[in-house]
Design brief:
Rossmann fold, two-stranded antiparallel ribbon, disordered N terminus, Arc Repressor Mutant, subunit A, 291 residues, 2 domains
Length: 291
């Protein structure tokens, strides 16, 4: 994995503005002394549908791309195309944020970055701990795109004494026995589980007991958590299996190439497999006539 280029240039400026404008742009006309919107403090954003929340990061990524190209305003159709949704759905999603655009002009890119970032909680930094310093954990720690989005990898933990004490992405890997102390010291908000399935539930239980209520799980296991704890599961093997399903359907629907008459390839293609795997000749019209 490598650093996302959108953290530089115009898109970087848009991200920076999104994280600082919370202190100077009033929403619903009210800001408290720390610059936080009263609507946010009162939880008025809870009515946003889950499906809309799932699409907001996609819109944000598209907006960063537009900012990088120096585009200051965007029509709903263009933004929808960049995000891979239809424009009606995009307009409805953004209306939940109180953003309706301007007819004939569209949306202000920089302000929409701020609105989406604020709704997703990206106008502040979120300390993250990664448990599991194997190949996946190392790749996550070295990914530069997290910092530019407001996620700070505060610590990495592992149980392997051969790894503990090593340096990964400017972090010293600590022993998993220190989990509770690390969570308290860094005020960790999000825990990432990148361990084998056998230890994932125990790690999850310890994170929850330490006060972590948001967990990103890469282990191939469905975690059991109490009410009030959010878990997002990422299983790359499942995604590959879904792609294999669609690839198989496309392959089955594709017509087989016709072989030249009388060619050896045609004779070979005439054999079929029985249930036990043995080859048997397929009866062709020519053979039937001879019979």
């Amino acid at each position: 994995m490598h650093s996302n280029a959108m953290s530089s240039g115009a898109s970087g400026q848009a991200e920076s503005n999104a994280r600082t404008e919370v202190s100077r742009i009033p929403v619903n006309g009210q800001l408290d002394a720390s610059g936080q919107d009263h609507a946010e403090m009162n939880g008025q954003g809870d009515g946003i549908p889950e499906a809309t929340v799932a699409r907001l990061p996609v819109y944000l990524r598209a907006l960063y791309g537009l900012a990088e190209r120096g585009i200051s305003t965007v029509a709903s159709e263009e933004l929808a195309a960049a995000a891979g949704v239809n424009s009606a759905k995009l307009r409805k999603d953004l209306s939940h944020l109180g953003s309706y655009g301007i007819r004939g002009v569209g949306y202000d890119v920089e302000y929409l970055v701020y609105q989406v970032s604020r709704t997703l909680g990206l106008t502040q930094d979120w300390p993250v701990v990664i448990v599991g310093a194997g190949n996946l954990g190392r790749a996550l720690a070295n990914y530069g795109g997290f910092v530019s989005r407001g996620f700070t990898i505060s610590a990495m933990l592992d149980s392997d004494t051969a790894i503990v004490g090593s340096r990964i992405a400017r972090l010293t890997v600590r022993h998993v026995d220190e989990l509770e102390a690390v969570v308290a010291r860094h005020n960790v908000a999000i825990g990432v589980i990148a361990t084998p399935a056998g230890s994932a539930q125990a790690v999850c239980d310890r994170l929850v007991s330490a006060g972590v209520t948001s967990i990103l799980n890469f282990a191939p296991l469905v975690l059991s958590v109490p009410e009030g704890v959010d878990v997002r599961k990422v299983d790359l093997s499942i995604e590959l299996q879904i792609l294999a399903f669609h690839a198989q359907r496309r392959s089955a629907a594709r017509p087989a190439p016709a072989a030249a008459a009388g060619s050896p390839g045609r004779a070979r293609a005439g054999n079929a497999r029985t249930v036990d795997g043995r080859s048997r000749p397929r009866v062709t019209p020519e053979l039937a006539a001879k019979g």
